[in-house]
Amino acid sequence: MRKILITGGAGFIGSNFAVYMRQAHPEDRLVVFDKLTYAGNLENLRSLEADANYRFIKGDITDFEHVTRVFKEEGIDTVVNFAAESHVDRSILGPKAFIETNVNGTFCLLEAARQAWTSGGNRFLHVSTDEVYGSLGETGSFTETTPYSPNSPYSASKAASDHLVRAYFHTYGLPVLTTNCSNNYGPFQFPEKLIPLMVINALNGKPLPVYGDGTNVRDWLHVSDHCAAIDTVLSRGRAGEVYNVGGRAERRNIDIVEGICAAVDARAGSDEAIARLYSFGGSRKKLITFVKDRPGHDKRYAIDCTKIEKELGWKPSVTFDHGIKSTVDWYVANRSWWERIVSGEYLRYYERQYKDRCDAAK
Ligand code: NAD
Ligand code: TYD
Fold first, then answer.
1. Crossing angle of helices 253-268/320-333, nearest 10°?
2. Ligand 2 contact, 216 CB (< 6 A)
3. pTM for the predicted model, two decimal places
4. Across 169-240, where does the E strand assignment appear?
5. Whose CA is nearest to atom 19 of ligand 1?
6. Is residue 105 part of a domain?
7. Does the annotation count 73 as an active-site position?
8. Separation CA 76–CA 37 (nearest Å)
9. Which domain range does residue 33 map to?
10. How many domains, the chain?
11. Which ligand is nearest to the CA of 195?
C-alpha cells in the first residue's frame, strides 16, 4: 500500500488523477494537498469524500513546515506534484505567483522529500508540460532530448522546476520521474483554457475569442489518458528519467473551435428560437471572433511519445473526435459546476483579459 501525496489535487488534472487512482488502486492511501487557489475546487473531489483512505489537506506547497509535517504524519512514500499556476495568459498578466508556486513550491517539496526519505522504495513524480521545449515550425516534434526553450513566464517557471527535479536526482539520488505532457482536455477543466472556455461561451451564445488567425497548433490528450500515463510512469518508469506524453492529435485552434460549435449546435440546439435568443443566427460558428494575439504566442507544439509507448507500453486510447464530444456532453450535463465558477473571480479575470483583446482587434 502506497501513501501518495497528490499536490494540486483539487485542480483539473490532479482531481481527475485522484479519482482515477481510487479506482485503479483501491489499496493506496491518497492525500490531496492543495492551496485552493481560484483553480482548486473541492467539488471535483466530492466522489472521494466518504472514502476512509482519502484525506484532503488545505495547504501551500511553498510552506515547508506544513509540507514536512504532512510527510511525517502520513508517512508519505510517493509524491505526484500537480500543484502549479498553470495558465499562460495569467502568467503574462502577473508572473510572480508562477515563480512562487512553480519554482519555490517544487523546491520545497523536493527538499521535504529529501529530508523525509532516508530509506528506499520512494517515488517523486513531477508533472510538467511540453511548453518547456518552446515553439515548433511546420514540422518536427519534441523528444525527451529536445533542448529547453521556454517562451512564457509559465513555461519558464515549469522549466526551472524541471531542472530542480533533475538536479535532485543527480546530486542527492532522489528517485524522481518527470512527465512532459501536451494540452489536456476533459471534465473539470477550469474555463480559462481554450476548450472549456469555447464550450461554455458557445452554450451561453457569447463571442468565441480566437487569438490571432487561429492557425496555432497544439497536440491534445484526454485527461483520462494523461492519468493512465502518470500511473504507468509511477509504477514502471525508471528513476531519473523523463517521459514525454502526448495524444498524437495535432489540431489548429480554429478547427477545434469550429468542431466545438458543431458539437454544441448538435446538443444544445441551433433552431431559430435559440438563434434569436442569442442572436447568432443558425450556427454558433457565427460567434467566432478573431481577437488580438497572445504576446509571444507559441506557434506549434507536437509531442513524440515513442519512449513511453515502447518502454512502458502506454498509449493514448481516447480519440480526439470522441473525447471532444464527450467533453461537450460533460459541460452540458454539469452546468451548475461551471455556472458557479463563471460568476465569481473568473468574471473579473475574463473582463480584464478579453476587453483589451477585443478592443484592439476592432
Ligand atoms: P489547474 O490550474 O487546474 O490546477 C492547479 C491546482 O494547483 C489547483 O487546484 C490549485 O489550487 C493548486 N495550487 C496552486 N498553487 C498551489 C500551491 N502553492 N500549493 C498547493 N496547491 C496549489 O492545473 P492543471 O491543468 O490541472 O495542471 C496540473 C499540472 O499539470 C500543472 O503542473 C501543469 O503545469 C501540468 N500540465 C497541465 C497541462 C494542461 O493542459 N492543463 C498539460 C501538461 C502539464
Ligand atoms: P490554452 O488552453 O491557454 O493552452 P496553452 O496556451 O497552454 O497551450 O490555449 C490553447 C491555444 O488556444 C493557444 O494557442 C491559445 C489559444 N486560445 C485562443 O485562441 N483563445 C482563447 O480564449 C484561449 C484561452 C486560448
1. 50
2. yes
3. 0.97
4. 176-181, 183-185, 208-211, 217-222
5. 60
6. yes
7. no
8. 23
9. 3-187+220-248
10. 1
11. 2
